[in-house]
Specification:
heterodimer, A: 235 residues, four-stranded mixed β-sheet, four-stranded antiparallel β-sheet, 3 helices, B: mainly beta
Chain lengths: 235, 192
Amino acid sequence: MPPSDYTVAPRPEPTQPCRIIEGYAQTAWRNPSQPLQRRPLTWSELTGPRRHATRLSQLGADVAGYDTAQALGQLILVRLAVVDEDGAPVPGTMIEMWQANSAGRYVHPNDSDHAPIDPHFYGAARVLADDSGRIEIRTIKPGAYPVPDTGKWWRPPHIHFSVWGRVWLSRLVTQMYFPGEPLNAQDRIFNAVPDHDARERLIARALPPTEGPDNALVFEHRIVVRGRRATPTQP
Amino acid sequence: MSQCVPTASATIGPFFPERYVDANANDLTVLEGRPARGEIIEIQGRVTQHDGRPLHNVVLEIWQADANGIFNDPIDPRAAQADPNFYGWGRAATDRDGSFRFRTIKPGAYSMPDGLQRAPHINVVVLYSGLMRELQTVLYFADEAGNDRDAVLNGVQPAELRSRLIATKEAPARYRFDVRLRGEDETPFFDD
């Protein structure tokens, strides 16, 4: 019997990415060669940090800016919902997002791409989810960019998310993709997930333009973090 | 409620914003200006890849109990006695030399209701470019007799790998924990 009424089970293997990816050399240098260890779960793995605001400063959910300080690119709203494996919202979880600018360039010393920096775009938000596990980020659609030193492949437009979830083992770093992007089909990172449905769930849903504000397209996305109640609640 | 499958993880990539590694994110000894209880310790280490090359900008995050072995989360049955000034979580990034550093409180031991024993330990997750899934490991302390009874450490097979999870004591209150992602002396990692 699990020690806690909130527990974490192994993820179905094909729904998670392969660790070693052809054409992505770093994966072969940095992933363990030895079999991974299994362990019994105790409070250590089945608890996690709470009251994030006491420790982590927030960076606003408006990444795009306004007026003369507005980022270049197509304005979008990303509505993100974080739930656990029961489909229950994860209220107050901390979420970090980061992305390239509309030309496919990150504000980071590691990015030596030729695409230009946008002085009005840093491309990062760190936000606490509300009581229903939701945040809305106002940003611009990221551009695609070529992956250096790997031959010919490009990263399609994508947004990175880092989510704390409920407990230590629910910590998740993932990427969100956009529907209808031709480059999704050749992306080695997106396609590293063997299961078709699990891959498709990484793609945000575009709301019909009639349902959003006048000046922005809206994308909805759901992130499922690990963890569920061990005993289903009786009705 | 409906059953949902956890979202596929992905690499943190090479462009994790520098603003997310705040200057004091690796210091767990103070929360909102108030000091945590317990012995202040420093942990240093170096992260290397298959060929021994040190890695720059590796993100390491830790989660641990307070000085009395209590987690600051209501899931822990003793949470009401948890140190209110100890958040328990921290983050560091490696420098060009592959080195990272945490300043924290030496965690306490605890036991589970079913009798499983846990020696003082710190959970460590490694996030980096080339890692499509997070790598989970655990740090133990060389000067803890309870290591012999720890339910996780003693499940590591083969047994000779266990010493790689034990941080060495370099000085009073200073420990070293090197992380080898792949290759000779590879750090044992966990899959849960």
